[in-house]
Specification:
single chain; alpha/beta; Nucleotidyltransferase, domain 5
């Protein structure tokens, strides 16, 4: 049995979790900064770092308490070290290294996006690689072929804005506030998704890449043109039409990736995986494929997913020493 204390601080959630043997979550504590950053319309890196410093020790203590586990019972310390906001990552990495040194137990470095993918293992005990996964969040949009628990191949990714970033920017234009994803999703239920046509970007050749900058700009231009002509826009229709285009192109590419790899198992991960329209689109078009996705609490940033990923990294002997540093950018399929 392996007991792992996992720490996540890559953006604006300070999180800690105790995970047993990769899939058994004993505690999952998340301190969010949404209310702090809401007034800025997005995450302010320096503010996020300071908030992590305030929260990191109480969150770790709470995770241990909730799990009924003492520090001395832990077998490993795991931490997100890449990618993310560098100052935010450093808080978690520093705390993890201190615990590893003080307790004299191994330190496991975890890639944030690999963690999101591994969140699917927590609630789907029979899920095993290989499978194809769409990872969509505020900072990332990737289609990944998961060959094995620690082997990943990127099949497609955004060339500009991430899907979640586009949702946030469109929500801001519509005056919905931050975070934009849940607000767009909620408002869309009141609108007609066929009211406005927003073009989906499809690259030529064999590319499975995304581009969400153009559709974001199209929404902005649509709203500005209406304003200049004194026309009132139906925000629910715009939100629904935008959401439809984004979700359809993500599912288009995801299903194409699964077909190319001969995979019948398809997963969603990341904050955008909470989107009801995305799930509905994928379920409607899944055919003979099996669809997996985590509960919303495991889609957004959390430490349980880091503990899950760390377990499989430990089986592959992927440990770090105290020279481990935070890294703002790192490909998922690094060797």
């Amino acid at each position: 049995m392996a007991l792992i204390l996992a720490i996540e601080s890559s953006c604006d959630e300070t999180a800690a979790s105790v995970v047993r043997d990769g899939r058994d979550v004993l505690s999952n504590v998340i301190s969010t900064q949404i209310e702090t950053h809401k007034k800025f319309g997005g995450v302010v890196p320096e503010v996020a770092s300071r908030k992590h410093l305030e929260a990191i020790n109480p969150v770790i203590d709470q995770a241990l308490s909730d799990a009924g586990v003492s520090k001395e019972e832990l077998d490993y310390i795991a931490v997100t070290y890449a990618p993310g906001l560098i100052g935010a990552l450093l808080v978690g990495v520093s705390a993890a290294k201190a615990l590893s040194l003080a307790l004299d137990i191994p330190l496991i470095p975890v890639h944030h996006i690999r963690g999101h993918i591994c969140a699917n293992f927590i609630e789907h005990p029979n899920l095993e690689p290989p499978f194809v996964c769409l990872v969509a969040s505020g900072g990332h949009s990737h289609i990944v072929y998961v060959k094995d628990y620690t082997e990943f191949e990127v099949l497609g990714q955004t060339r500009d804005d991430a899907a979640g970033e586009a949702f946030d920017k469109v929500a801001r234009v519509l005056g919905l506030g931050y975070p934009g994803g849940p607000k767009i999703d909620s408002l869309s239920k009141e609108g007609n998704e066929n009211a406005v046509w927003f073009k989906k970007v499809k690259f030529g050749g064999d590319s499975l890449d995304f581009s969400f900058s153009g559709i974001k700009t199209a929404v902005i231009n649509y709203c500005h043109n209406a304003e200049q002509h004194g026309e009132e826009i139906n925000k629910a229709d715009v939100a629904a039409s935008f959401q439809k285009s984004v979700c359809e192109v993500m599912v288009d590419n995801l299903l194409e990736a699964a077909q190319r790899k001969g995979c019948k198992k398809i997963c969603l991960a990341g904050g955008v995986a909470c989107n009801s329209r995305l799930r509905k689109e994928l379920e409607a078009r899944k055919g003979e494929n099996e669809i997996f996705y985590p509960s919303p609490i495991f889609c957004t940033d959390n430490a349980a997913m880091i503990g899950c990923s760390a377990y499989y990294e430990s089986l592959a002997s992927n440990f770090a020493d105290l020279s481990l540093n935070a890294t703002a950018y790192l490909e998922i399929d690094f060797k």
